[in-house]
């Protein structure tokens, strides 16, 4: 039976809201609390006709409402975007800030992530602006500017403990993705490679460029039965894998992505992707 899931930042989900939605949606059973004051769910017979409207209203109260298909609910593959998903930054913007071209690059990044620019062209245009930057800056940016997104380590470690495979698939750069994947515990990482000669960025990336289609290819390679996969991301280049995976989640995503994705976490941290799969806080690593 399908479920309605409610997830809020810790301590912010009230029993009154849960019970009023049980009434409004005609719940067919009791609410199950996966984490006190944070995540609850209840069964319904079908997607309520006013679901989208109610979802908008409760979003104003910082609660994420999702309609969950409970078939194959616990996924055996996690495929995740890196920039602004598993980390709190866009690596290319941080590199550009060090190179003194921060504003120009950030403006292109926003348009690319909103789907307004061709992804490959946007990568090439921005990397070209980084030409002659000392490669040692990468290490510096990793150490001083990059932060892991809250809940990401718990998401990866808990799924791995329950037998899932985990892959970081980034349209950003492998020079960052390998380090981030190791810190979080991903089984593998894929990304574009910044080319370096004589200790400096050449302003080029290795081809072919890993874009939207390459993320979908990684998903189908790792889980030919895509219903068994959860894909998460925030950008327009993540929408292919988000739409194809059994559970595609827009995480703190650009509006165009959040609206197109079957699932969205806008308020809670990445542990929300565990609640959507039916894990309770007692299962977390
Ligand atoms: Mg991203």
Give an account of the 3D structure:
With 285 residues, this protein is α/β, with parallel strands linked by helices. The protein has two domains: 1-70, ACT domain (Alpha-Beta Plaits), CATH 3.30.70.260; 73-285, 3-Layer(aba) Sandwich (Rossmann fold), CATH 3.40.50.1000. Helix content is 38%, strand content 21%. The chain has twelve helices and twelve strands. The chain has helices spanning 15-25, 51-59, 91-99, 102-113, 119-128, 136-144, 152-161, 174-184, 212-222, 239-244, 255-260, 272-275, and strands spanning 3-7, 32-35, 39-43, 64-68, 77-80, 165-173, 188-192, 194-197, 200-205, 229-233, 247-251, 263-265. The strands form three sheets. Strands 7-6-5-10-11-12 form a six-stranded parallel β-sheet. A four-stranded antiparallel β-sheet has the order 2-3-1-4. α4 packs antiparallel against α5 (119-128). The longest helix is centred in the middle third of the chain and has 12 residues, at 102-113. It is elongated. The two termini are 28 Å apart. The mean pLDDT is 96. Residues 81, 83-85, 233-235 line the site of magnesium ion.
CATH topology heading of the largest domain? Rossmann fold
Radius of gyration: 19 Å
Q: What is the name of the CATH superfamily of the largest domain?
A: HAD superfamily/HAD-like
Shape: elongated
Fraction in beta strands = 15-25%
For the largest sheet, list the strands in their spatial order: 7-6-5-10-11-12
What series of H and E elements makes up the topology? EHEEHEEHHHHHEHEEEHEHEHEH
User: What is the CATH architecture term of the largest domain?
Assistant: 3-Layer(aba) Sandwich
CATH class of the largest domain: Alpha Beta
| Class computed from helices, strands and strand pairing | alpha/beta
Percent helix, as a range, is: 25-40%
- Ligand identities: magnesium ion
Summed up, the domain count is: 2
């Amino acid at each position: 039976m399908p479920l309605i899931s409610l997830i809020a930042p810790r301590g912010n989900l009230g029993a009154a809201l849960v019970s009023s939605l049980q009434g409004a949606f005609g719940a067919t059973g009791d609410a199950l609390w996966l984490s006190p004051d944070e995540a609850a769910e209840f069964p319904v017979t079908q997607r309520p006709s006013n679901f989208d409207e109610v979802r908008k209203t409760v979003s104003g109260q910082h609660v994420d409402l999702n309609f969950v298909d409970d078939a194959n609910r616990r996924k055996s593959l996690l495929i995740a975007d890196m920039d602004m998903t598993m980390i709190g930054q866009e690596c290319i913007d941080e590199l550009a800030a060090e190179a003194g071209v921060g504003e120009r690059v950030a403006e292109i990044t926003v348009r690319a992530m909103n789907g307004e620019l061709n992804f490959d062209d946007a990568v090439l245009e921005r990397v070209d602006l980084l030409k002659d930057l000392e490669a040692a800056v990468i290490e510096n940016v990793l150490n001083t500017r990059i932060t892991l997104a809250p809940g990401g380590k718990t998401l990866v470690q808990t799924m791995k403990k329950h037998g899932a495979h985990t892959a970081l698939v980034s349209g950003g750069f492998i020079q960052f993705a390998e380090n981030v994947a190791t810190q979080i515990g991903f089984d593998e990482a894929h990304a574009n490679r910044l080319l370096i000669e004589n200790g400096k960025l050449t302003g080029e990336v290795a081809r072919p460029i890993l874009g939207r289609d390459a993320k979908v290819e990684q998903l189908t390679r790792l889980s030919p039965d895509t219903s068994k996969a959860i894909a998460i991301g925030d950008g327009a280049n993540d929408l292919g894998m988000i739409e194809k995976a059994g559970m595609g989640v827009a995480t703190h995503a650009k509006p165009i992505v959040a609206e197109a994705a079957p699932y969205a976490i806008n308020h809670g941290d990445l542990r929300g992707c565990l609640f959507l799969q039916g894990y309770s806080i007692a299962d977390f690593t």
